[in-house]
């Protein structure tokens, strides 16, 4: 259930703007979402409060969802299938830790050839359904000595290094028909500003400070080691060169991965409170031994994902009410 300005619970009905932002302004560029939204509203009995996006190897989280309703991406009009091994491609709505959560198992990536409006469509739909917050998880390579495989990073900022990739112009199978709309690099928010949308959305504090504090407290109580730091988002699909790893580290990042940044950018433009975690599955290229491969990422995700799942479950149980995002000063 989402909250109105007076804190009262409100249902977000068709035709009404969600309480926290100019959805039409930032979401309605290119990808028609009305039919998708209708399908989700028909299938999901109660408006979810929080979106939870599961990264590679973290799909086990859906097992703790109660009162489950599952909607496969293939059943949603206009949605492509999620195409990466380890990504199931479905929404699972239900209760975790007593909260109504929309779990997104599998996501769309730039490296699959998807344009920004497809990558961020689940965030737009979740916001339109009424969520006031989002938790993103991902698999990432660690860039510091402390962040070895199996460790967890709490994001407190990010670097958007998701420029264009030469493989963009390949005719990849499963490529979305709207790919030609991707004319403005990899950012999810180009195009005309409509419906009161913000031309230059603020990204001073993308990751909610109060939620970060909650995550750190819960991790301490549960004796789960949790580092806090900066995630660099790259488009992939190639892993980084050793020189790129050095440059990304020098830019201040603690982990590097191929997702999350566009979704967080959209979520913040919609006024959602955001929390995000990287599960470190490997040392970034050149910092560890041997070559990276996707199976290794999935295996570590499965093995160490349990701790992150327990942490997210406890955070959801303690998730604060109220919609107001909190930044460095409040
Ligand atoms: N680099 C980029 N993306 C990743 C990595 C990495 O080392 N590991 C998991 N996702």
Task: From the structure above, extract its key features.
disordered N terminus, Rossmann fold, binds hypoxanthine, 330 residues, 11 strands, two-stranded antiparallel sheet, alpha/beta, five-stranded mixed barrel
Class inferred from helices and paired strands: alpha/beta
Q: Name the quaternary structure.
A: single chain
The DSSP helix count reads 8
Bound molecules: hypoxanthine
Provide the CATH topology: Rossmann fold
What is the general shape?
globular
Order of helices and strands: EEHHEEEEHHEEHEHEHEH
**CATH top level label:** Alpha Beta
Count of strand segments: 11
Overall pLDDT, averaged? 80
Please state the CA-atom Rg, rounded to the nearest Å: 18 Å
Total individual domains: 1
| Helical coverage, percent range | 25-40%
Tell me the span between the first and last alpha carbons: 24 Å
Report strand %: 15-25%
* Strand order in space, largest sheet: 7-10-9-8-11
The CATH architecture name reads 3-Layer(aba) Sandwich
CATH superfamily: Nucleoside phosphorylase domain
The unreliable regions are 1-23, 169-173, 179-184
Briefly say what this structure is:
It is built from eight helices and eleven strands. It has helices spanning 23-27, 34-43, 116-119, 121-129, 209-221, 242-250, 261-269, 294-317, and strands spanning 2-3, 9-10, 50-54, 66-72, 90-96, 99-105, 133-142, 152-161, 227-234, 255-257, 273-283.
Explain what you see:
The chain is an alpha/beta fold. It has a single domain (13-317), classed as Nucleoside phosphorylase domain (Rossmann fold). It has eight helices and eleven strands. It has a five-stranded mixed β-barrel with strand order 7-10-9-8-11, surrounded by four helices. A two-stranded antiparallel sheet has the order 1-2. A hairpin with a 2-residue loop joins strand 5 (90-96) and strand 6 (99-105). Helix 5 (209-221) packs across helix 8. The longest helix is centred in the last third of the chain and has 24 residues, at 294-317. It is globular and about 50 Å long. Bound molecules: hypoxanthine (HPA). Residues 139-141, 239-240, 256-258, 281-282, 284, 292, 297 line the site of hypoxanthine.
């Amino acid at each position: 259930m989402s909250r109105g300005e007076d804190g009262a619970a409100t249902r977000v009905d068709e035709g009404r703007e969600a309480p926290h932002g100019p959805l039409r302004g930032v979401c309605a560029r290119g990808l028609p979402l009305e039919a998708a939204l209708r399908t989700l509203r028909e299938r999901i009995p109660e408006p979810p409060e929080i979106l939870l996006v599961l990264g590679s190897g973290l799909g086990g989280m859906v097992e703790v969802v109660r009162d489950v309703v599952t909607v496969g991406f293939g059943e949603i009009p206009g949605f492509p299938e999620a195409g990466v091994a380890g990504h199931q491609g479905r929404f699972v709505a239900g209760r975790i830790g007593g909260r109504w959560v929309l779990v997104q198992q599998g996501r769309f990536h730039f490296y699959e050839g998807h344009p920004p409006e497809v990558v961020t469509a689940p965030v737009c739909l979740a916001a339109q359904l009424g969520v006031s917050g989002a938790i993103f998880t991902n698999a990432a390579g660690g860039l510091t000595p402390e962040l070895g495989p199996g460790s967890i990073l709490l994001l407190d900022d990010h670097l958007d290094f998701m420029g264009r990739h030469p493989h963009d112009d390949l005719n990849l199978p499963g490529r979305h028909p709207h790919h030609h709309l991707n004319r403005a690099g990899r950012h999810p928010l180009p195009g005309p500003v409509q419906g009161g949308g913000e031309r230059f959305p603020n990204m001073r504090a993308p990751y909610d400070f109060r939620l970060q504090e909650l995550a750190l407290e819960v991790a301490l109580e549960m004796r789960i080691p949790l580092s806090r730091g900066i995630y660099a988002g790259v488009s992939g699909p190639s892993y980084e060169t050793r020189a790129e790893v050095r440059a990304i580290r020098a830019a201040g990042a603690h982990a590097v991965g191929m997702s999350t940044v566009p979704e967080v950018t959209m979520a913040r433009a919609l006024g959602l409170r955001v929390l995000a975690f990287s599960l470190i599955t490997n040392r970034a290229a050149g910092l560890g031994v041997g070559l990276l491969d996707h199976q290794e990422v999935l295996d570590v995700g499965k093995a160490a994902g349990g701790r992150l799942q327990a942490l997210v479950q406890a955070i959801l149980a303690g998730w604060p009410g109220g919609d107001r995002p909190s930044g460095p000063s409040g």
